[in-house]
Amino acid sequence: MLINNGLYLYIDPSTGSMLFAVIIGMVSALFFGFKAFIMKMKSRLGVNMKDIKDKNKFDYVIFSDHKRYWNVFEPICDEFEKREIEVHYWTMSNDDPALNKPYKFVKCEFIGTGNKGFAKLNFMNAKICLSTTPGLDVYQWKRSSGCDWYVHIAHAPGLERGGYKLFGLDYFDAFLSASEHHGDFVRELERKRNLPEKEIVPVGVTYLDEMKKRYEATSRIKNIVPIILIAPSWGDSSLLERFGHKILDAVISTGYKVIVRPHPQTLTQNPKLLNELQSKYKNIEWNFDNDNFDVLNKSDIMISDFSGVIFDYTLIFDKPVIHTKTNFDWSTYDGAVLDDKSWTDRTLAKFSEELNEDNIINLKEIIDNMLNSNKYDAGRKEVKEDIWQNIGKASENTVNYLINKISELN
Description:
By secondary structure, the protein is α/β, with parallel strands linked by helices. It has two domains: 57-205 and 391-409, Rossmann fold, CATH 3.40.50; 213-387, Glycogen Phosphorylase B (Rossmann fold). The protein is built from 15 helices and 15 strands. The chain has helices at residues 13-44, 49-55, 70-82, 114-122, 180-193, 206-216, 239-252, 264-269, 271-280, 293-298, 309-317, 343-351, 363-371, 377-387, 394-409; strands at 2-4, 7-8, 58-64, 87-91, 106-110, 126-131, 147-153, 174-177, 199-202, 227-230, 257-260, 285-286, 301-304, 321-324, 352-355. A seven-stranded parallel sheet has the order 5-4-3-6-7-8-9. Strands 12-11-10-13-14-15 form a six-stranded parallel sheet, with helices on both faces. A two-stranded antiparallel sheet has the order 1-2. Helix 12 (343-351) links the parallel strand 14 (321-324) and strand 15. It is globular, with a radius of gyration of 23 Å. The model is unreliable at 1-14 and 47-52 (pLDDT under 50).
């Protein structure tokens, strides 16, 4: 920001976010205060402002902060379209695939990125808002006084206990989960923080339903030379951040084909690391496809960390997984306040082999054993039954919930 005589004032992102929240709060207070004054005046003149406000109010708004969540929302939008019910889909990605679908009843709109998009959300006039985005009423995204009911829907079936950033789900009215298990940690957080109980409904997983249909209609691939897929999460605790060179050197030494699929967020958060690794390991295939189905389907085994893609790979493709122990830092996550932080480790142990500093030199042997063993078959089945319910019915259950909620709100 230029202030005087060519000098610049730097505002770091967190401070900028705080300032934006303060400004939006002040503007919102003035805006809604003025609206309240106008409504009071018109009420005295005999004008029913509630009828006018409700007439201009959307029934349903779906908010997506990134196009990568379209796989969650597309089946829901298709279900609304099939039932000929109008829904407004707001996205912060100007290249979101939703914008190109020839819907009649689903109204897709690019609302802008960053603060511009959040400003529109903060003045939303809708009965229900559905989103995968956590952090409502924590940072930029504020509850609008014009929105009656906020619903969060899980975007991964294996979301570890407390795997949301601090206060990620606290201020939603409802949580549509993948299974009963998902709701357990939410209830514990509500008790610890003295929060009112939100509605928790296990609807299933929309994108997994579609992936399952796709997999059943696709021929199986048999590779002569095994393909190892490295598919990590992102952040300081992730596989590439902590073991980048070491893990890549180890998989190359197996002589098998290697594909690395970085988490999309790594492109934003740590492009320097990716550029460095890509420059050094040019003999590795790097995959950045928006749709991960093909790379999951053609690979034989996955190496990951705490990424939710482990569960996609296990539940749909029924293939072996190796996970790295990354000493996950809970300090900025809801899991930091939970009594039991071991759910992820216990669950992974049922169907996945751990790769650590001691056994990484035996990686080829570990891979060969897993490719030729049924050791974890029962574990994969058990985990599927535990964390993925209502298979094939998620979009139908989601829309049914939203329709019933509208009736209650009315």
